[in-house]
Design a protein that fits this description.
alpha/beta
Length: about 525
């Protein structure tokens, strides 16, 4: 028994799939009913050998192949967690597993299911194992949406082998799946599909009877555009192809007055030539002397060639002109992209920094978050090498709040250009962290008496402020006296770099330390 939504008739095994594709008749309605399924659904692989990409997970003897083949014995299939971006084949692999032999397949979505549903599946799986000797494979989509309590409900069944869990998630399982479940499962990472993988899918969908069945031809420029906008997402690529083919067929139907071979059916599936006894374009059929049996045998390729619609770049751009951007504001992509953004600025690659800025903007990232990261970068990575960098970052943050988006991208871009091309120094960052480390280590002695607050009555009797030298009364407005606690006298935290403006600061710091600490007690002492 199976509760799977995947248990649908295979189009290749149905009468509709074996029925003639060119011409009207009682099977036309069947074909139209089938065509209502999206192209991405119709083209889902039926075996692991048809799966594109993920070769590292599909080798002979791999856990996934063991799940599909239902390998018995002491090394029974393990529960797996499939982690990868959208459109990389997680649901497809689950559907292939559903076609495996000797197993019952149950599918749940963490979006709609709850603990009650999980317990029901566990009870039924236990019964199926004990009474019928059947293994139950539970596919749980979007497992990261389950709470800790809901994930806990899976543990007994997984640990005792009542079910083989196949869980899918787009978020890092290390953060979204509880540790006990991780330790009882294999985590399999699905990689984004390559451009070659997506191209293979597009070519297959154009010719496969389950797909467009050769009704269209994909121009090279259109193919490249679809590859560009797919962003490694197979579902996005097939959906875009279907939309582009629909645009092309619609235009061809309009040009032919709805009578030619390119006329699309109400469901978007092109009607084959030969309807109503007419030849393509409404021309008269050849005489019986030129249309014999051999001609009928060649009717499909010969009739299809002149009537096939070409999907051009214009059709593809009309259907979809915006590339898919992989980005999740709370997940790995959020942190990975902003990390690459800051590291590109730190590494002085202004072009890469602009790219990651554009990715965040296009994905709808909060511009205030981007601005805050720029302010941090200006102090952490540039500092006194270019003191104006912090001013630019703060100005950009204020400008974004003042003018909003999309114009706010301009001050952000200006600040990125400034920071990425500025000389770099992390001296101030290292200085404050070193000082914090000393404080945490207990090196925080009493404040010298002459520096203590002396404004309140009785402070003088305690010696507070006694002997303090007002800096503005001293030569060069620099007073030679002890400032740090006794145990930190001579401790240097700030070590200027020789880059940018800080090169000038470096010499000034040496002079100031000599003046403040006295001759012979400048930089380099750490007591």
């Amino acid at each position: 028994m199976s509760d799977s939504l995947f248990d649908i008739p295979d189009p290749q095994d149905s009468r509709a799939a074996r029925a003639p594709q060119d011409g009207p008749g009682p099977n036309a309605a069947v074909r139209r009913g089938r065509s209502r399924a999206p192209l991405a659904v119709r083209m889902r692989p039926r075996t692991l050998d048809e799966v594109v990409g993920q070769k590292h997970l599909l080798r002979t003897g791999s856990p996934l192949r063991a799940l599909v083949n239902g390998r018995p014995g002491p090394a029974a299939p393990s529960s797996v967690i499939l982690w990868g971006p959208p459109g990389t084949g997680k649901t497809t692999i689950a559907q292939v597993i559903a076609r495996g032999h000797g197993t019952s397949f149950v599918e749940l979505s963490a979006v709609t299911a709850g603990v009650k549903d999980v317990r029901r599946v566990m009870d039924e799986a236990l019964t199926a194992r004990d009474l019928h000797g059947r293994t139950t494979v539970l596919f749980l989509d979007e497992i990261h949406r389950f709470t800790k309590a809901q994930q806990d409900a899976l543990l007994p069944g997984v640990e005792n082998g009542w079910v083989v869990l196949v869980a899918a998630t787009t978020e890092n399982p290390s953060f979204s799946v509880i540790s006990p479940l991780l330790s009882r499962s294999l985590m399999l990472t699905l990689q984004p599909l390559t451009r070659h993988d997506i191209a293979e899918l597009l070519d297959r969908a154009v010719t496969d009877p389950r797909g467009l069945a050769g009704a269209v031809v994909l121009a090279p420029e259109a193919r490249e555009h679809l590859l560009d906008v797919a962003g490694g997402d197979a579902r996005k690529a097939l959906t875009s192809l279907e939309a582009a083919a629909g645009v092309a067929l619609s235009h061809a139907a309009d040009d032919a007055g709805g009578q030619g071979p390119a006329a699309a059916s109400p469901t978007g599936e092109p009607e084959a030539p030969g309807d109503a006894g007419g030849a393509p374009g409404g021309t008269a059929e050849p005489s019986s002397g030129t249309a014999g049996a051999p001609e009928a045998g060649a009717a499909r390729p010969r009739a299809q060639d002149p009537g096939t619609v070409t999907v051009t770049l214009e059709h593809a751009e009309e259907a979809v002109n915006r590339a898919a951007v992989r980005y999740d504001k709370q997940g790995d992509q959020h942190y990975d992209v902003v990390s690459a953004f800051i590291k590109s600025i730190r590494g002085s690659d202004v072009d890469a920094a602009m790219h990651y800025l554009a990715r965040m903007i296009e994905a709808g990232e909060d511009p205030r978050f981007i601005a805050r990261r720029l302010v941090i970068s200006a102090s952490e990575d540039i500092g006194m090498a270019d003191p104006t960098a912090l001013q630019s970052a703060v100005a950009a943050a204020q400008a974004v709040q003042l003018i909003g988006m999309p114009e706010g991208r301009l001050p952000l871009a200006q600040a990125v250009a400034h920071l990425a091309t500025a000389p770099k120094s992390n001296a101030a960052y290292l200085a404050v962290d070193a000082a914090i480390a000393d404080v945490r280590a207990g090196r925080a002695g009493p404040v010298p008496p002459h520096l203590r607050d002396a404004h309140y009555p009785g402070a003088g009797q305690l010696g507070h402020g006694r002997g303090y030298v007002y800096a503005h009364d001293a030569p060069n407005a620099v007073a030679a006296q002890q400032y740090p606690p006794d145990e930190l006298v001579g401790r240097d935290y700030y070590e200027p770099t020789p880059y940018g403006h800080e090169k000038q600061v470096s010499r000034r710091v040496e002079i100031l330390r000599e003046m403040v600490r006295g001759p012979g007690h400048g930089s380099g002492r750490d007591e």
